[in-house]
Amino acid sequence: MIKCMKKIYFLLLGLFLMSSIPFFANTFSATGVIMDDGGKKTTDKATTIVLKGRFIKQPERSLPLAAPVDAVFVENEGIYLNASSSLPDVTVNVLKDGCVIYESFVDLPADVEVLVPVVCSGSGTYVLRLTNPQDGFLEGEFIR
Description:
Blueprint: H1 2-19, H2 21-25, E1 28-29, H3 36-39, E2 46-49, E3 52-54, E4 65-66, E5 69-74, E6 78-83, E7 87-96, E8 99-108, E9 114-116, E10 125-131, E11 137-143
Parallel strand pairs: 1-4
Antiparallel strand pairs: 2-5, 3-11, 5-6, 6-9, 7-8, 7-10, 10-11
């Protein structure tokens, strides 16, 4: 009798976990780093931006899946963004000394490099901030 109850318990547990997979697939967090050319800077004018934060599509129900967003600032070109999964309705802000100096709205398709044509004037520390309507938030600093 106890063996039968254990089998039923594990069967129900397995069914519950399998039915929860769609929830896992719709929830993710993002932390990412990019280096030009597969991990190596190809020019002295490229600056790696380390992004930290979370992008959440639905309320969290379990452990989030990683979804890195890569970013690199290239002098006189702008910031290149690349997401491993599609991120629609992303607000891109660049701040200097706490003030927004650039703002745009973009859709980040999966595995497509998107150029944000921001030109940072003057040397200093800048902040790249990415947000979405679902309270997703990524932020990283870079020095020009």
